[in-house]
Amino acid sequence: MSDATIEEVAGEALLEPLPDEGDPGRGRTLFSAWHLILLPLAFVMIIPLLWMVVTSFETLNETRQFPPVLVPGSLRWQNYRDVLEQAPFARWFLNTLFVTVLVVIGNLIFCSLAGYAFARLKFFGRDVIFLLVLATLMIPFQVIMIPTFLIVRQLGLIDTLGALIVPNLAGAFGIFLLRQFFRTLPIELEEAARIDGASRLGILFKIVLPLSGPALATLAVITFMWTWNDFLWPLVTLYSEKNFTLQLGLTTFTGAHQSNTHLLMAANVMSMLPLLLLFFVAQRWFIRGIATTGLKG
Amino acid sequence: MGQVVFEHVNKVFPGGTVAIDDLSLEVPDGQFMILVGPSGCGKTTALRCVAGLEKPTSGTIRVGDRVVNDVTPRDRDIAMVFQNYALYPHMTVYKNLAFGLRQRKTEKGEIDRRVRSVSTMLGLDDLLRRRPAQLSGGQRQRVAMGRALVREPSAFLLDEPLSNLDAKLRVRMRAELKRLHTRLGITTVYVTHDQIEAMTLGDRIAVMSNGKLQQLGPPQELYDEPTNLFVAGFIGSPPMNLIRGRAEGGRITASDLTFERAGVPDGDVAVGIRPETVVQQSDGLPSFEFLVDVVEPLGDEIVVHGSTAGTPVETGAEEEELPTMLEGSRAPITARFDPGVRFHPGDRPRLGVPAERLHLFDLRTGAAIR
After folding, report:
1. Which of A10, A15, A189 minimises the CB distance to B176?
2. B257-260/B267-273 β-pairing
3. Considering the entire predicted model, what is its pTM?
C-alpha cells in the first residue's frame, strides 16, 4: 500500500475521464392536437377579462346598454385619467404593493423556518403542534376576525397598514405547503451537507431552500394574490382613505345610488395589472408547484 | 492517524429493533475494510454511526485517536459517499466539490487548488461547470468520490457506492476505487451487500448478519475457512453446497458421500462443498451421485446445477426464499468445471471431492468444525 497523500498525487490523473454522454436535452412540439381543444377553452376563460377591458374604455352610457356594447364607439383613455384624478389611486396602489410585498417576504421566511422544523427536526410534541397548526386552516376567517381585530387594536395598529401586515406574516397554509415539500427532498442531501460541515440553518438556506424553488414560488404567488385581493380585513381595519388598499378603494366607485361602472372597470384593470404580470412571469412555477409533489433530478 | 474503531457498539432503534449487537471491530490506518451482509444486517447503521448520522445506544466509536460518540459529523474528520451520491442538484460540479471546504471557511485560493487537483485526479476537468442532472451515472459517482476526497479526511465511508451503476460500469468503477485506495491509502469503510465487491475490494471483510459480526478476515480466509454456516453460505458465488450429514466416530456420512476426519465429535453436521472443488473422477475420493438439471456454459467455465440425494441445509444467507423445485429428499448441488466437460440434463455422473476440501459445520450451533 502506498502512503501517498492527496497532496503528492495532486495534478496526476489517476482516472481516465468517462465517455461523455452529453447533456440530455429535450425536444419540444410547437403544435399538437390538444391545442384545438385548449384554444377555445382558453377563449371562454378569458371572456370576463376581455369584457372588463372593453368596458373600461366605454362611456357610462355604453356600459348601461343591453345587449352590452362589445365594441365601444371610441377608446376613452379619459376613464383612466379620471380614475387617477378623482381618487388617490397611486397612493392605494403603493399601499397595496407595500403590504403585499412585506407579507410575501414574511411568509417565505417564517413558513420556511416553521415548515423545516416540522419536516426535519425532532422535538417534543412536534406532530401534535403540527396538527394544531393544520387545524387552524379549517377555521373560517370570519370566526377569528374579531379576536384578531382586538389583538391588532391592542398593538395600536388599527387604521395603519401594519394591521394588514402583522397578522399575516406567517400562515398555516404556507407552513403546510413547505413542510410537505421539504419532506420530499432526499434526506441524504441534508446528511451529506451535515458531514460537509453545514449547520441546520446553513442546510436550510444553502441546500433546502434553493431546491424548493417551485414550492416557494407557489407560496409567493398565492400569498401575493390573497393579499393583493383581500377585501374584508382591510375593510374592517382601515378607515382613512389615505390608508386604503386597492380593493377597498375600488368600492368608492360604487355609490349607493349610482355606479361609475366605466371608471370602476378602468380602476380594476389597473389594479389587476401587477397580478397578471406576476402570473405571466411565474406561471411555470405556479403550475409546477401545484402539480408536482416530488422532485426529480 | 485514521483508524476507525468500534468497541462493543450497540444500536437499538426506537421500537426495539436491534440494528447492531455488540460490534467490536478495528480498522487500522490505511486499510480498506468491507462491511458485508444481507440487507437489514446492520452494516449501513454501523457506517452511519461512524459518520455521526446515528448515535450508538451504547459502546464507543473512535476515529483516529478520538472517541467521537459526541462529536458532530462535521468535526469527525470523515467523508461519506452515499448510495444515491447525494450531489447537490442546484450546484455545479465545481461547487459540489467546494461545498465542504467553503463550509469550513477554507481560503478561496486553497479551495480552488484542491478542487482542481481532485478534479484532474478523477478526470472531471471538463465537467466542472455542469450540474449533476447533466452527468451520467458514472460521472456522478466520480463527483461523489471527489467531494469526499477534496476534504482530505482521515477516513472514508462508502455506502454501497456502486449499486446504482449498470453491471459493466460497476466492474470498471470497482477497479478504479481499488486503484484510488492503493494510491492514496486512506482508511476506508465500505458497505456492500455484494460479496463480489467485498472479495475484490477489501483488505479485510467483516461479514455481518442480524446486527452481529459473523467473521472478520482477509477475503481468501473467509472463503477458505468460513467460521460458520452463515459465512459459508454468504461468501462465494455460486455459494457453497451444504448437505445434512452425521458424524460418528470420525466417520462422516451425508447422503451417499462418506469420508473420515479425525477428531470430529459425534452428532449432526452440515457438509460443505465448494462448487469448484468437485471433480469428475470418483476413484479414491469421497463421491456422490449427481443428477444434472441445468448446464450453463460461461465460456471460461461451465456451471452445472443439479441435485443429490440428501437434505439441504439453510444458512440464513439466502437472498430470498425460493420454493425448491426438487422433489422428495434431494439437496441442490452446483458444480463448476473447466470448459470441455460434456453434461446433459438427466445425466447421473458420480462426482468426487478431495476429503480435505470438504467443510464441516456443527448443525446445532452452525460453527465450523476444524
Report:
1. A15
2. unpaired
3. 0.80
